[in-house]
Design a protein that fits this description.
The structure is a single chain. The protein has a six-stranded mixed sheet, sandwiched between helices. A five-stranded antiparallel sheet has the order 7-8-11-10-9. It has a four-stranded antiparallel sheet with strand order 12-16-19-20, with no helix packed on it. It has helices at about 5-15, 30-45, 65-80, 100-115, 130-140, 145-150, 170-180, 195-210, 215-245, 250-255, 260-275, 285-290, 395-400, 405-410; strands spanning about 25, 50-60, 85, 120-125, 155, 160, 245, 250, 295-300, 305-310, 310-315, 325-330, 335, 340-350, 360-365, 370-375, 380-385, 395, 415, 420-425, 445-450. It has about 450 residues and is α+β, with helices and mostly antiparallel strands. The longest helix has 30 residues, at about 215-245. Helix content is about 40%, strand content about 20%. It has 14 helices and 21 strands.
């Protein structure tokens, strides 16, 4: 029995990963990790009666994608292993975070295929190096202890990681001893990715200059963090039931009476329940939530917004703004827009007041044609802001560029001249076509007050 197989088998037994009559779907890339895992599973079948199949995802992103698929098919045929091949043809159009989105798509498809093929477990080939790399990535991003616990051995009672205690060098040595070929992912050497910097630069430096056993050291830290987290989580799972209101609101006043570690754990559990996961949630986000005051809100990753009102933490629900349309036939005028609770004054002046886009639009009166319509924004609205180089731009894009919060965009009155052209919107520059000039003699002033 080889050293790697012994370690692999011990992990299987330690975490009860594989049992008799299991039907396992192995996520197979043809790389060294999944190749080694397939061979070790074949060997394990001598000790445990179970079945497994391979599933391969062709991302169609590299020139050698077809060659890699051919290699995978030949491996499956050589060892008489059932193989599922799925082509991901929608990734080329993705411009950013392609690795993350490809991973999300793979996991979604793995769940689908597991359900479709009656597989009760899905095996991935994450090893000890992957776990340590993830630890450092999350450390640099400010993750809490739960995040630093890194890659779980078992996830969602479906995914298993049988190689999680095996080092990369042990995997490569094992494959070399069997003279087994595998696919090398060239992108693993590209320094633009943080994981690659940690893998190829940071960990070798630590091993050489500080701690040659850094992989085992980090693994021990992860175990300690996990044991502590499991203990606190058990307390939090009981306590949160006492603090929840209607399953989706949290009593902050009662939460403040708990010890700090429990408070943080309960907030994490609350986010997990309403968001579905804790991905991208860091220590900073938990701190922000715990420091919220009455009436304040915070936006978490993936667009989740939480707010506190009357001592209750809950998901922020944007109030729908009723559509409105007012027609102005004469100037001066003063009127109230009840739908958004704002008061508007429109008047002429020969004195130019101070610019303030948040509450005042200043235009050249001679360029404005009545009537003036006042309404909230509509899909397809566009105009050319003051000093803009573009002929015109979508209003939605301008609001995004100016970092105007989503929640208030529909409450900003939009002013349109008699020809249907946008002349100004609150919080934005006036239209470049109706701006004042050096020779402007009379100004049209639009002022907004909140009442």
């Amino acid at each position: 029995m080889t050293k790697i197989f012994l370690k692999f088998k011990q992990s299987i037994e330690k975490y009860d990963l594989i049992t008799r009559n299991d039907n396992i779907l192995l996520s197979f890339s043809g790389g060294p990790d999944s190749t080694a895992l397939a061979l070790l599973l074949l060997k394990l079948k001598k000790y445990i009666d179970f079945d497994f199949s391979l599933i391969y995802f062709n991302h169609n992103l590299r020139d050698d994608s077809d060659f890699e698929e051919k290699h995978v098919r030949e491996f499956a045929e050589k060892f008489s292993l059932p193989l599922i091949v799925i082509h991901l043809n929608n990734l080329k159009s993705i411009k950013s975070n392609i690795e993350e989105k490809a991973r999300d798509e793979r996991y979604k498809l793995l769940k689908r295929e597991a359900n479709k093929g009656n597989f009760n477990k899905v095996a991935t080939a994450h090893n000890l190096n992957d776990q340590v790399e993830t630890f450092f990535i999350r450390l640099f991003r400010g993750s809490g202890s739960d995040g630093l616990s890194s890659i779980p051995v078992i996830r969602e009672n479906l995914f298993i990681r049988p190689l999680i205690e095996v080092k990369k060098r042990e995997i490569l040595s094992y494959l070399d001893s069997l003279n087994i070929s595998y696919i090398i992912d060239k992108t693993n050497k590209e320094p633009k990715y943080l994981r690659n910097k940690i893998r190829n630069s940071l960990i070798p430096l630590i091993e050489k200059e500080f701690n040659p056993s850094i992989l085992n050291t980090v693994r021990n830290i992860i175990d300690i963090l996990k044991y502590n987290d499991d203990f606190i989580n058990e307390i939090c799972l009981t306590k949160i039931e006492e603090l929840l209101i209607n399953r989706d609101k949290l009593n902050i006043r009662k939460l403040k009476k708990e010890k700090e570690a429990v408070r943080r754990g309960i907030i994490r559990e609350y986010i997990k329940r309403i968001k579905g996961d804790l991905r991208k949630i860091s220590y900073k986000h938990i701190e922000t939530i715990l420091s919220l005051k009455e009436g304040q809100k915070t936006v978490l990753p993936d667009g989740l917004t939480l707010t506190i009102g009357k001592g209750i933490l809950q998901k922020y629900k944007k109030k729908e703004t009723e559509n409105f349309l007012y027609t102005i036939d004469k100037i001066p005028i003063s009127f109230h827009i009840k739908e958004i609770g704002k008061h508007v004054k429109i008047y002429k002046s020969k004195i130019k007041p101070v610019y303030d886009d948040s509450r005042r639009g200043i235009l050249d009166l001679n360029k404005i044609e009545l009537p003036i319509m006042v309404r909230n924004r509509k899909q397809g609205d566009r105009y050319k802001p003051f000093r803009s180089k573009a002929k015109s731009k979508k209003l939605k894009e301008i609001l995004i560029d100016k970092k105007i919060e989503k929640d208030i965009r529909d409450t900003l009155p939009l002013f349109i001249n008699g020809k249907g052209e946008i002349i100004w919107m609150q919080n934005l520059p006036v239209s470049d076509y109706f701006k004042t000039e050096k020779n402007t003699k009379e100004f049209l002033i639009i002022e907004i007050e909140k009442k």
